[in-house]
Amino acid sequence: MSSSREPQHKEDEEATEATTAEDEDTGAQVAPIVKLQEVALSTGEENEHVLLDLKAKLYRFDKEGNQWKERGVGTVKLLEHKETGKVRLVMRQSKTLKICANHRVLASISIQEHAGNDKSCVWHATDFADGELKEELFCIRFASVENCKTFKEMIEEVTQSQEKEGESKEATSTADLLEKLSVVENKEQEEKKEAPAEEKKEENEKQESTVDKK
What whole-number distance in Å separates Cα of residue 170 and Cα of residue 177? Predict the structure, then answer.
């Protein structure tokens, strides 16, 4: 009986030793085959301040097909440049982050509520989303009336500030022009005053010269 149990006991010991050997940490470190480097992603928005950030669905009007076509579902932002103060509208698709709208918010932009839908707005803009400037008619739809109202009011606020800034620049330019004209007129008047004085001086010199000769 004892002889029949010995092989079984020996096999158990060998199995235990094998398992222990597998579980042992040799301390060896395996270097990765390919080293991945961290890459800083640039969105082009680093120098801009976010004025508005809302989720929406964007459409553009297809003139050829005479119908609205979806541009994407994602986040629409109004971004103000930290140095120049210029504001632009940017919208990216949620999953791909592809740009579906990218244009300046100018004083000439007129935004209106879409007929029959108080959750949508429409406006014209010169857009650069496809890498070239194109005149587009956009329609944007929000999940709530409140978000649509907030978007519309913010666009109107920006356009009004742009219009005031334009008027201020125009007034400053006009004032500078008037000042330059005034300076030119004064200079011309001074030159006219100086001319007779020089002529009189020359005439006196001639008379003095004539007297000396006599």
Answer: 10
